[in-house]
């Protein structure tokens, strides 16, 4: 922060006392509690539909991850058959339990098989290969890919994608929370500023109404011309119009704030004017954008959500690469029959297997790989644009703050001058050295300066809310 910034910040802090002197709405009754920014934020975090929608989308991603993990659930299958009425009467059963593993795409299984004639003395047909001893056969086996599906297969890819999608959903929920935080605080301080504008209009109208009563009395006594009383009545009507306009602004801002401030049922609850706070404090100054930029670019949930989505696309690319080779699997099975029966079925059997397949042109895996790589490149460009946009938002938030700070200082100085001018013009009017038109102009100028001061203070809060939404992740790390 430069010396000029330090000097300006000191002046801004000293100006808080001036802002506290601004006219307020009617004092808040003792029983009524003023609405605070924290209350608005808490209500928005609990009940805003966008927050609820983001939470539901995160739950969807959790359910999809559960479904992807289900690809590694054990699988039980069984087939039974009985043959009757022909030359051979048979009973056959085959049951198998398979367990996929995340280790190089390997799969283990255990099975039981039974193949017998209905009568133990019946012969078993030679064209059926599933004959067993009378107690059946137990087998244990393993299949493992040597080439394709080894580094990555569809099950592991889907689980990885679901994990990254869940991470992205969580980051999007955080981003929604930050965005709503900014909008909720913006709506709150806009509402507070609107209440101050109504207070300024009330003060201005009260002066005009008091002066109208005094002017009519003096005009009836012949001390002043009747046209001065007519001018005072015109001022009252004009200021009533301004009061109505300010009231409309307060009602509109309350309705907007109701989108964030909700009741326990989640319905919008626009606050009443009695809930307005009694003061409009100034926010603390913001930090240097260059200091916060690096941390924000690494932790902001909008960027982290896109990076998580990129990792999901990288899984698609890695899977496409793993699918380019031929299918070459090896298997090993150990089986043994138990019980009585033919001698040829007795003993422990060890069997090794090889399975090979390959599409000749490989167009499908090559096309999938190319599509995944191009989609990844496109998303990286979108991420780069988002990073650039976030940098610009940081710089623009600093610019918004600096301009609002300078506007506040100018408005504060102008308010002091317009107050002295208005008071001097009223004294001249009492002395008969000026007319009522100039008094009204001076008072109108003072009211405009008061509104400008309120607007500058509200703009400071809007800039601070925007800055916090951009940088809060860096401060919480």
Description:
This protein is of the alpha+beta class. The protein folds into two domains: 3-67 and 157-312 and 374-476, Up-down Bundle (Outer membrane efflux proteins (OEP)), CATH 1.20.1600; 75-150 and 327-363, no CATH class. The chain contains ten helices and six strands, in the order ααααββββααααββαα. It has a six-stranded antiparallel β-sheet, with no helix packed on it. β2 (90-100) and β3 (107-117) form a beta hairpin. α4 runs antiparallel to α5 (154-221) and α5 packs antiparallel against α6. The two termini are 23 Å apart.
Write the SSE topology:
Elements: H1 3-14, H2 16-20, H3 37-47, H4 49-69, E1 75-83, E2 90-100, E3 107-117, E4 137-145, H5 154-221, H6 226-258, H7 289-299, H8 301-322, E5 327-337, E6 348-357, H9 363-430, H10 436-476
Antiparallel strand pairs: 1-2, 2-3, 3-4, 4-5, 5-6
Residue runs with pLDDT of under 50 for 5 or more positions: 1-31
Radius of gyration: 40 Å
Beta-strand segment tally: 6
CATH topology assignment of the largest domain? Outer membrane efflux proteins (OEP)
- The CATH architecture of the largest domain: Up-down Bundle
Largest sheet, in brief, is: 6 strands, antiparallel
Q: In terms of structural class, how would the helical and strand content be classed?
A: alpha+beta
């Amino acid at each position: 922060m430069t010396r000029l910034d330090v000097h300006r910040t000191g002046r801004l802090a000293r100006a808080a006392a001036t802002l506290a002197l601004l006219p307020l709405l009617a004092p808040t009754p003792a029983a009524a509690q003023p609405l605070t920014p924290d209350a608005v934020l808490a209500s928005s975090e609990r009940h805003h539909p966008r927050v609820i929608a983001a939470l539901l989308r995160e739950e969807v991603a959790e359910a999809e991850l559960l479904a992807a993990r289900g690809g590694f659930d054990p699988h039980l299958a069984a087939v039974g058959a009985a043959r009757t009425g022909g030359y051979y009467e048979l009973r056959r059963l085959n049951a198998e339990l398979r367990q996929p593993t995340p280790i190089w795409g390997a799969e283990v299984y255990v099975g039981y098989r039974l193949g017998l004639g209905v009568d133990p003395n019946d012969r078993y047909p030679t064209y059926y290969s599933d004959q067993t001893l009378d107690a059946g056969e137990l087998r244990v086996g393993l299949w493992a890919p040597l080439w394709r599906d080894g580094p990555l297969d569809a099950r592991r890819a889907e689980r990885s994608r679901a994990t990254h999608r869940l991470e992205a959903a969580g980051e999007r929920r955080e981003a929604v929370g930050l965005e709503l935080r900014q909008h909720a605080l913006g709506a709150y301080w806009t509402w507070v500023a609107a209440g101050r504008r109504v207070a300024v209009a009330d003060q201005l109208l009260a002066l005009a109404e008091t002066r109208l009563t005094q002017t009519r009395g003096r005009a009836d006594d012949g001390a002043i011309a009747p046209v001065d009383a007519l001018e005072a009545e015109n001022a009252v009507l004009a200021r009533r119009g301004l009061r109505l306009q300010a009231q409309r602004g307060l009602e509109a801002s309350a309705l907007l704030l109701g989108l964030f401030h909700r009741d326990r049922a989640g319905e919008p609850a626009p606050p009443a004017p009695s809930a307005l706070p009694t003061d409009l404090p100034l926010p603390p100054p913001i930090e240097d954008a260059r200091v916060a930029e690096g941390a924000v670019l690494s932790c902001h949930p909008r960027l982290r959500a896109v990076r998580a989505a990129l990792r999901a696309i990288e899984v698609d690319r890695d899977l496409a690469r793993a699918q380019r080779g031929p299918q070459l699997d090896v298997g090993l099975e150990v089986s043994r029959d138990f019980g009585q029966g033919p001698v040829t079925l007795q003993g422990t059997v060890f069997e090794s297997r090889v399975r090979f397949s390959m599409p000749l042109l490989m167009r499908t895996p090559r096309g999938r790989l190319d599509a995944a790589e191009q989609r990844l490149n496109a998303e990286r460009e979108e991420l780069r644009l988002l990073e650039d946009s976030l940098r610009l938002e940081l710089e623009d938030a600093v610019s918004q703050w600096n301009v609002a700070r300078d506007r506040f200082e100018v408005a504060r100085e102008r308010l002091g001058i317009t107050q002295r001018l208005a008071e001097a013009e009223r004294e001249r009017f009492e002395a008969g050295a000026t007319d009522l038109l100039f008094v009204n102009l001076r008072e109108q100028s003072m009211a405009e300066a008061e509104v400008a001061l309120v607007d500058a203070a509200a703009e400071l809060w809007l800039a601070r809310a925007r800055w916090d939404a951009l940088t809060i992740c860096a401060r919480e790390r």
